[in-house]
Structure formats: structure tokens, C-alpha cells
Amino acid sequence: MENQAITDLPRKRCHSDKKKAPVFQDHCEVLKKVRDIIVKRTDEVDKLLTSQNGNERRSLLNEMKKMEAVLKLLRDGGKAGESENTAASDEALIGDRDVREVLIDSLKNTTSPSPVGVKRMGDVDCKPFYEAMKRASKKEDSLRVALNMCQLWTECVKDPQWRPFKVIVIKGKSVEVIDHGDMKLKALKKEMGEEVQNAVSKALTEMNEYDPIGRSMIPELWNFKKGRKASLKEVIAFLLNQSEQKKRARLLP
């Protein structure tokens, strides 16, 4: 039970501290909204094609091709084969503000063990804190103490004044990486272990990627099973599967 509470915590916290927004109960309706957005964008691009030439026209044709691939993906129920076109359209449409808003609204209330949902980038994983506290304190106190410690370090990650990063050069490009020589991180590792330090470092890396200035936690469509961003194909397949399950449940006596 305690393990489940720790596993669910980041997503539960994500839901509780956001302003309430409409939740789409019918996943097919969500996909219809996505399709409508893409169709509208396709019409806009089609109109622009008549007045463009050269590089601009080629760019618009490429965009049109990507959107047509996504429409095919929707028609096929998220079961289209992997291709360069599908991957490109994934990147283009999953990053579209209107599409993201619809998908995040529809998925933000999913809870474990849902394989696809919404992750707050920069949220600290509390499970390593729980494991560390089980080793260091009485079992009945470990969950409470772990949650308190995790919340404390989440606030540290959100603090713009704390920047435990250093710049290194990779293939001629300057890149910011975690500075494990930072005094706070070194103290954390000494007190609670490497796994806890890694959890905080991972949250810091995400925060630095998504909002390095404001340090707010940006919602991201996430594949929890694989521990990475969810592809458009995965989100569509998940929503359709959920819709089918609801239909079957309604047919049961």
C-alpha cells in the first residue's frame, strides 16, 4: 500500500495543484477535436500554397504531408507502421499548442498504472526517498518523512537561485550538465544516498530543459511504462483503447 502511494504521488500532486479544467469523458471526442484542429490547419496551408513558391512552397508541402500522415494515423486507430513520416508528424503535431492542450486536458487525471498520461517535468520522484527512509528510520514513519523530504527538495528544484550546473563542450557545442560537485547535491548524496541524488539531478535536468528561467513545472505527455515522452501514435492508441473498454463495460449486464 505504501509503495503504491509513493508511486502515485507525483501524478496525484500534479492533479491537485492545477486549476480545474474540463475533462473529456469520451476519448473519441478528444480524438475528434484533434482531427478537427489538423483539418483546419491543413485547409490553412492549402490556401497558402497558391500564393507561395520556391522554398516556402516546399516547406508548406512538407507540412501538409506530415498532417496527412497524422490524419491517416487517426483513421488507422494509432496502428500505422513506424516511418520517417510518422515520426516527423509526431514531432510536429504533438508540439502543436492546440493539440497538446486537448491531449493534456484529456489525460491529466489518469493515475497509475496507466501507461500513458501527463508528467510534470521537474517533479522529483519520491520513491528513492522512501527507500532511503525505510533503511534509516522506523518503517511506520518512513512514508511520512519521505514525502516531507521529497516536497522539500521539489521546492529546491523550483528555486531559480539554485543553479547546480556546469558547462561542458560536446562535439563543439556548449551544453549545461549537472555539477555533482555542488555542495547541496554532495550533502544530499552523503545523507540519503546516490539514488536520491540522482532523482533530484534528473528533476533539475528536466527543469533546466523546460523552464530554466521561471522554474515552473511544465506538463508533458508521457509514456510512464517506457520512461520517456509519449508519441502521438501512443497517445492515440491509448485513447482509442480506453474508449473501447468503456464501450464494452456499458454492454455488460
From TrEMBL:
UniProt domain Factor of DNA methylation 1-5/IDN2: residue ranges: 119-248
Gene Ontology biological process: gene silencing by siRNA-directed DNA methylation
Domain of life: Eukaryota
A Pfam cross-reference name: XH
InterPro entries reported in the protein's UniProt record: FDM1-5/IDN2 (IPR045177), FDM1-5/IDN2_XH (IPR005379)
Protein name (Swiss-Prot/TrEMBL): Factor of DNA methylation 1-5/IDN2 domain-containing protein
Organism: Trema orientale (Charcoal tree)
Upper taxonomic lineage: Eukaryota, Viridiplantae, Streptophyta, Embryophyta, Tracheophyta
